[in-house]
Amino acid sequence: MTRRPCAIYAVGILCASLLVVGVGLVVSQTFRTLMHNRLKKEIVLVEGSRVFESWKTPPPPVYMEYFFFNVTNVDAFLNGAKPEVKQVGPYTYREYRYKDNVSMVENDKMVSAYNYRSFVFLREKSVGDPAVDNITTVNIPAWAVMNKLRGSFWKASAVAFMMSSLSSGPFTTHTVDELLWGYEDPLLARLSASSPDIEKVFGLMYKKNGTHSGEFVYHTGQQNYMDYGHVKTWNGESELTFWKSNQSNSINGSDGSAFHPLLDKNERIYIFTSDLCRSIHMEFEKDVEVKGIPAYRFTPPRSVFASKEENPANAGFCVNPKECLGTGLLDVSPCRKGAPVVASFPHFYLADNKYVAAVEGMSPKREHHQTYLDLNPTTGVIVRANKRAQINVLVNKISGFAKTRGFNDTIFPVMFINESVVIDDASAARVHKLLLIVTVVSNFPLMIVGLGGIMLVVLIVLLVRAREQKTSNEEDASYSPVSDKEKEDPQNGTYIGLTPKEDPQT
């Protein structure tokens, strides 16, 4: 057997083996399954895991922007006119987040931690000086007190007289710093003299700088990767007590800082937010890319804040059946000590049009007011996010307070926040590296198939050449010499004579 036939046989066997093995691995998804199982084991909340340190101290910078609604026609509104507001902002702060007192519990199946946040003002990213700029807005302490006395005419009348003597009315003017981080309110200070449990100082972010929001216990994801980062308990409770149904009081999903790997476009992402005292869900919207990293965009649909008529599952959030709010709003007074605070998306985005039309200056736009999460589907890593929420106050007529006599029910916007983050370059590089490894390992069977294809081409080339060689040998065999010895031409050298064909007629 010559070398060429041996090579052909060897290439043929190698080609068939590669194609059979490669196709078998592709069909069985063996390498992809191995890689996915590896991800499930590595992306867990335990000491030494790939994600534990970044979960405790997230490296990407987080920015918190505050936008206020300055009321420009207070006197006219008090006389029955439509309120007019002008958006002022942003006042931007760098937000530093970290988890402290981290400890493994329940035989390392869970991990407990306290989420701390602190804020540092960034003048270069802001429109003005928060210590100087004044904002006229709803007097939330006054409305909280008035709302507490609803239905008690005589007490309300006494407090109304007290408010008049203190020049405390339905609206107030303070600096941005005071509205955010706190100021001593004269009405609260007077009431606290007889009720020590009443806090003298009020601020939208009072006691939220350098503090935590309670103890969280999280699933590590070791038992089930789908539970990775999910909140099991908050302040020792596995469910809430603010709302009227078990479904509304359920604590579902993560706290928004961690999401399980291998995300699917068809699944709902649940997030528990202590600011709203409830869980919300988000759904897939579209594919996006951030710094070269593919991501799925998830965003809360209209049904999250829909009315109970539009979404019966939200009936439990209607604490007072006689005063249920419409679509786009959430009454958070049960977890705000009874203050008539209402949450929504900025500019009443996704809310009923009547709330937008009731206040001059509202202009909801999806690109500016939508909340979304961009998550890499392979790792679950947040590559970009914008959390946007608006604080409003329910303003209406309250018996015993003459200044509210001409008020209609109005959801009055106070401010909205935009909490944003984009993955930093160092973290993006690590994600790129991990995705490359996942891609290479998962597609290794395709590489085997490709190599088998290359060997198939080599086999075909060898077969073609062998065919050509055989044909050439057959053509050579059709020639014969004139005599046993090659004739020599004394002038032209050696030549081979051809035997002339016989005449068929002879």
List its salient traits:
506 residues; alpha+beta; 13-stranded antiparallel beta sheet; two-stranded antiparallel sheet; 19 strands
Quick structural summary:
The protein has 506 residues and is of the alpha+beta class.
* C-alpha geometry: elongated
Q: Show unreliable segments.
A: 494-499
Roughly what is the average pLDDT, rounded to an integer?
Answer: 87
Cα distance spanning the termini: 46 Å
Proportion of residues in extended strands: 25-35%
Number of strands: 19
Biggest sheet record: 13 strands, antiparallel
In quaternary terms, these chains amount to single chain
Compute the CA-based radius of gyration: 37 Å
Helix content: 25-40%
Number of helices: 12
Helix-and-strand structural type: alpha+beta
Walk me through what this model shows.
The protein has 506 residues and is an alpha+beta fold. It has helices spanning 3-28, 30-42, 52-56, 74-78, 140-148, 153-165, 176-181, 186-192, 353-357, 366-369, 425-442, 444-476, and strands spanning 62-71, 85-105, 110-121, 134-138, 171-175, 183-184, 201-202, 211-219, 231-234, 269-273, 278-290, 293-299, 329-331, 341-344, 372-375, 382-395, 410-422, 487-489, 493-495. The protein is elongated. The relative contact order is 0.14. The model is unreliable at 494-499 (pLDDT under 50).
